[in-house]
Amino acid sequence: MRLFVFLIVLLLAACGDPVDDRVITPDDMGDVDMGSDDGINNVNNTNNSNNSNNSNNANNTNNANNSNNANNGLCSPNNDGTIERSEVPLRAGLNAKFKIALDADFDTAGVEENGETVWDLSGDFAGDMLELVELQDTMGAWWLSTFPNASYSTKLSATEDLRGVFQITDDALLLQGVVTPEDGLGRTELEYDPPVTVLQFPLTADSTWQTETDISGVALGVPSFYDEVYTYTAAGTGTLKTPFGDFQVQRVRVDLERTIGILTTTTRTYLFVTECFGTVASVVSEENEDEVEFTTASEIRRLAP
Ligand SMILES: [Ca+2]
Questions:
Q1: How far apart are the CA of 105 and the centre of ligand 1, in A?
Q2: What are the angstrom distances between the C-alpha of 147 and each of 127, 143, 157?
Q3: How remote is the CA of residue 203 from the centroid of ligand 1, in Å?
Q4: Is the pLDDT of residue 94 over 80?
Q5: What is the pLDDT of residue 73?
Q6: How much distance in Å is there from the Cα of 303 to the middle of ligand 1?
Q7: 65 Cα–ligand 1 center, Å
Q8: Is the pLDDT of residue 44 over 80?
Q9: Rounded CA separation 299/160 (Å)
Q10: How far is ligand 1, taken at its centre, from the CA of residue 233, in Å?
Q11: What's the 291 CA to ligand 1 centre distance in angstroms?
C-alpha cells in the first residue's frame, strides 16, 4: 500500500519573489531579496540601515558577521558553516523552479575535487521535468480548521497532487500534515502528531534530530493510521552544481521509516541546504535502500533557472 510518494521531506529553495520578480544569480552570490515585508525575519533589526541598497555585500569582507541583512529583506551568505534560521527564506508567496527526474542514476557519494566533495546535478537526466514550486498562502484553504497554525502549503511531488502543510517557527520548519488541493469524499487529510521537524536551526556539521510521529486521517477518502520515524543527520559539506549555478552546501541525510500495520518501509533522502536559498536539491532513494550512499534515485530535484 503506497499512500503517496516519499517526498514530504523535501523543503524547497525559495529564491524568487513574485512581487518584484528579482532574479538572483548564485554565481556572484549577491544578496538574496527575501522581501521587505517579511515579518518572519524582522527580529533584532538594529544595524542594517546601510545595507538596504547594497547589492555588492557578498564581495565585502566586512560582512562576515552581518547576520542582520535578512532583517531588511536581504540575505548575504557568510559561508561560516552554520545555517541560521535568518539565512533561509521561508514564507508564503516565494517560489522557485526545479528540474525533476524520476528513476535516475546518481552517485550520492559525489566526487572529491581539490580536497572537497562535489555533487554535480547540473546536467540533464532522462525525462527531466521543469516544475514551479510555490509556497502558497493558507488563506481560504479548505483544511485551515484542521491546521490553524499553518504558514503555507506546497506541492510535495511532481507525480501527485498532494500538498504538504507547513508551519514556520523561530527555530524550525515543521510538517503538520498532508492534504489534497480540494475537499471532498476522495480527499486526503492526514495529520502528523507531533509535526515532523523538517529543518532545525541552526544547521551545523554536527546537527542531528529525530521525529517519531503518528499519522491519522483519511488518504484518498480511506481512513488511515500509520507511524513514521524521521531521522535527520548532517552528512558533509561541499559544492553542489545545479542548472541554476553552484552552491556551497550542507548535506542532510533523512532516513524515513514508515510502518503501516506490520509492514515497515525505509527510504533515504539527501537534502542539500545552503544559505539564502534553503534546500536547493534533494535526492530520494528507492524503497528499502540498503546503502548509505546510493546510486539509483527514485527522484532527483535541483534548482533550475
Ligand atoms: Ca551562516
A1: 32
A2: 35, 7, 20
A3: 9
A4: yes
A5: 55
A6: 20
A7: 9
A8: no
A9: 13
A10: 18
A11: 31
| High-pLDDT (> 90) share of the chain, % | 69
What is the Å distance from ligand 1's center to 87 Cα? 7
Q: What is the pLDDT of residue 72?
A: 46
Is residue 60 a contact partner of residue 266, using CB atoms and an 8 Å limit?
no
- Distance from the alpha carbon of residue 228 to the mean position of ligand 1, in angstroms: 31
CA distance 291 to 81: 27
Model confidence, pTM: 0.79
Distance 43 CA to ligand 1 centre (A): 17
pLDDT digits (tens, 9 = 90+) for 71-82: 445 677 888 999
C-alpha cell read off for 289: 535502500
Q: How many angstroms separate the alpha carbon of residue 202 from the centre of ligand 1?
A: 9
